[in-house]
Amino acid sequence: MSTDTSLVYQTDENTQRRTFLVGVRLFLAANTMLMLAMLFAYLYLRANNNGGMWRPDGIGDLSGLGMAIILVLQAACLVAVIAAIGLFHEDRSTHRVVGVIALLLALAAGVGRVWYQYHLGSGWVINHGTYTAVTEMWFGILIIEALVGVLWLFTVVLPGRRAAHPLVAARQLRGFAEYWGYLLVVSTLVFLLARLV
């Protein structure tokens, strides 16, 4: 008795899209737990201030301009990805060009984050108080997440031997837009918390 297995593997495109987006959102929910753990550590250590070691003398304020540039690059990348999704069904060549622009913006934001991490200001050494330790660790996590986003966008946008099917690429761009938008909001909130609290 033979059966046609091709029917088993044919799934509705909407089902695949929804499944992929559910996976992205589950990842973001898990990542939110990590961010809440970091928030708890930050606020707990800030409230306790054991031995006056939360923020000892000699630690400079965080540069607002440097972080603002990074956040603008991230926002521009998000806008470019959303534009690429909108252009997907209209003009594939323009879609790819806009995707490459988004990739370059994401890469610039990732490099900017690494540069910012190593140029935080005077007194910013990880063992110089719990404020610097927790803040640098949190910024480090955000650097890793930004670079993961850059790699994700790289695999979707650039053509190659293993280039994704056009519908898969559109689905990946939609998932990336949600991930990058989440990262933009979290990065802004973390910076404001570290700057103001």
From TrEMBL:
Q: Pfam families attached here?
A: DUF979
One GO BP annotation here?
A: respiratory electron transport chain
| Keyword annotations from UniProtKB, A to Z | Membrane, Transmembrane, Transmembrane helix
What does UniProt give as GO cellular component? plasma membrane
Q: Which Gene3D superfamilies match?
A: Cytochrome c oxidase, subunit III, four-helix bundle
Enumerate the SUPFAM superfamilies for this protein.
Cytochrome c oxidase subunit III-like
Transmembrane stretches in the record are: 26-45, 65-88, 97-118, 138-158, 179-196
Q: Where is the Heme-copper oxidase subunit III family profile domain?
A: 1-197
Family designation: Belongs to the cytochrome c oxidase subunit 3 family.
Q: What is this protein called?
A: DUF979 family protein
Source organism per entry reads: Candidatus Aeolococcus gillhamiae
